[in-house]
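Attaching the record inline, Q. Sequence:
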Amino acid sequence: MVEEGHELWQEEEAAEEVHRADGEEPQAEEREAADGAGAREGVEREDDEDGGDGEGQGGGEEGAGLGLPSDLLAGAEVAVGRRAEEDHDDVEERERRAEPTGQLEGPLALHRLASRVRSPPVPGKRSTAPERPAGGQRPRGLRRHEARFLALFLLLLAGGFTVVSLNWVNDRAIEPFTGWVARASGAALNLLGQDVRMEGTVIRGDRFAVNIRNGCNAVETLLIFGAAVLAFPASWRARLLGLAAGAVLIQLVNLVRVVALFMTGAYLPRFFDASHTVVWQTLVVLCGVLLWVLWADRVALRRTAPG
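Structure, as predicted:
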C-alpha cells in the first residue's frame, strides 16, 4: 500500500509539471510577440522624428516596407551626411589653394572672382583712367582744338613765307642774316684747320668754295617751327621760350650742315649734290619738327600736372 501510494504521488507530480510547462509556453510566445510589436513601434517613432520632411517619412516608410533593419538605415544616413560634409570641406580647400590668376572651380568661385575684378569705386576718390566716349570716338572738344591748331598753323606758315618773299624783307633781313650764317660757318671751318676766307656769303678754300644763299640759312625750318609753336595752345611765356631755344638749336644744326657740305665738296665731291639737296635739307627740317614735338609734349605735361 505504501509503495502504491508513493507511485501514485509521483504520477500526480509529473502530470502537474507537464501541465505547468504547457501553460508557460503560450505565455512566453505572447511575451515575445508583445516585445516585437513594441520594438517595431519604437523604430517607427524614431523614423518619424528623424525624417521631419516628406522625403524622410517616405524613406522611413520605404525602408519599413522593404524590411530593412533600423540600425542599417541610421548608419546609411550618417554615412551620407559625413560624405556631404567631406565634399563641402574639399571644395573650400580647393578654393583656398587656388592661384591668384583666377583658376577657380565652380559657379561660386567664378562669382567670387568676378566680384574681386569689378570692385566698387571708393567714395570720394576720382578715377585716374581717362574716360572714353562711346564708339571709340574722340571728344568733340578735342577735335575742335585740333582743327583750330591746324588752321592757325597753316595760316601762320603761309603768312611767314609771304613776308620773307617780299624784296624789302629779303634785302633788309634775310640777306644780312645769311651773311651772319656764312661768317659763323667760316669761323668753324678755320677752327677745323681748313684755312678758308670769306667773300660776302661765299666761303672759299684752297680745294673748294660754297656760297650760302636762301635755302642754306634754315629760314624755312625756322618758319615751320615758329608757326607750330605759335599755333599751339600754351602761355606766351612758354611760346617765347620755345621760339628762342628752338631757333638756337636749329641754327646749330644748320651750322653743322654747312661745315659738313664744305668738307664733302672738298674731299668727296661726287657726293656733294646728293648731300646738299636730299640728305641735309631733309635732316634740318626733321630736326625742327622733332624740336617742336619735344617742346609741345613738355608743355602739355606741365599743363596736366597736379597743382
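The longest strand covers residues 197-199. The chain has two domains: 2-96, 143-304.

More tomorrow.
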